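Example S7 (structure tokens).
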């Protein structure tokens, strides 16, 4: 088990916040139906990451239920463990393991779900066989993934041009490294999203169906709390201080999965600190906007495609 995902790909905090927002308890009736989660029973989220959805599942399941989260990344699981403890949900079980070889006995799960996992798995057939092994006959499986070009961003330029230009210049240096990491870890990146349900359909589930689950965020939406708005401002801060993506670490991660690192040099330590300063400045400006009444227009829609069915 390593920390590549949490250290180099997606910081746990942002993913946690966005998922908590995307699966609100007030809408649990709907998203639980789309994910085919029973009211109670043994429910497992595989590839649970920092636990945004997992905590929501636990909060909205009835007793007696057994809730399990599985992930291969130590940083994500540590983060999830802390959040579960804070929410008084320590009975939720977190297990370290691979989605294609889960640390669970045969036929012990009533509902298995995954969100934003399948697109990262090299062998979806192996994943399905494993789901089938751990699910009891008649149990439900749901697989959610990002659908199409999922965000529409009409944010007005709220930062001076020089700031944006300098950010873009440094981001261009990082780009080949991001691409290499993407190729190594986002197996289906760039593939037709609509093909995922097709693949899942070929697994031969009973009562197969495809649903979608979408959420729109708008800073001007008066129904949003400030906390919710800040989650989205922070999405634009992609180099948190606790996550220094140095060249050596990325090389190591890529070597581990047999992928080659780009020949170009990564950001120097000084450039990285500068980029961090620029992101902070941009965040400061965006926060000012958000705090103003009727703040700057911005909206984004995230769409999840959910394929689900019943395992024979
Ligand atoms: C995009 S994140 C989604 C996390 C979570 N489901 C959510 O939506 O917040 C993908 C997660 O899958 C995990 N992951 C990727 N490949 C995996 C595998 N083969 N086995 C278990 N977990 C895996 C990563 O560590 C990461 O936490």
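Recovered sequence:
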């Amino acid at each position: 088990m390593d920390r590549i995902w949490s250290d180099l790909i997606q910081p746990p905090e942002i993913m946690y916040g966005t998922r908590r927002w995307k699966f609100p308890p007030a809408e649990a009736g709907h998203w639980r139906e789309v994910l085919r989660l029973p009211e109670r029973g043994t429910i497992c989220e595989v590839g649970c990451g920092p636990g945004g959805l997992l905590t929501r599942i636990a909060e909205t399941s009835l007793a007696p239920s057994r809730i399990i989260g599985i992930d291969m990344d130590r940083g994500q699981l540590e983060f999830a463990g802390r959040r579960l403890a804070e929410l008084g949900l320590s009975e939720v079980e977190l297990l370290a393991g691979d989605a294609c070889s889960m640390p669970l006995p045969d036929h012990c799960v009533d509902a298995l779900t995954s969100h934003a996992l399948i697109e990262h798995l090299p062998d979806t057939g192996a994943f399905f066989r494993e789901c089938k092994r751990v699910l009891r006959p008649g149990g439900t499986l749901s697989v959610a993934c990002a659908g199409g070009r999922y965000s529409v961003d009409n944010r007005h330029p709220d930062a001076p041009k020089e700031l944006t230009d300098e950010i873009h210049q440094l981001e261009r240096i990082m780009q080949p490294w991001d691409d290499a990491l993407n190729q190594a870890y986002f197996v289906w990146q760039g593939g037709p999203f609509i093909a995922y349900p097709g693949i899942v359909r070929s697994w031969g589930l009973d009562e197969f169906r495809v649903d979608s689950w979408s959420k729109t965020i708008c800073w001007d939406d008066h129904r949003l709390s400030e906390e919710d708005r800040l989650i989205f401002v922070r999405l634009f801060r992609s180099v948190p201080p606790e996550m220094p993506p140095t060249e050596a670490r990325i090389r190591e991660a890529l070597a581990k999965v047999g992928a080659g690192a780009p020949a170009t040099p990564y950001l120097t330590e000084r450039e990285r600190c500068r980029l961090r300063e620029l992101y902070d400045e941009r965040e400061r400006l965006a926060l000012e906007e958000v705090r103003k009444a009727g703040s700057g227009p911005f909206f984004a829609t995230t769409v999840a495609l959910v394929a689900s069915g019943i395992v024979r």
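Notes on this example. The radius of gyration is 20 Å.
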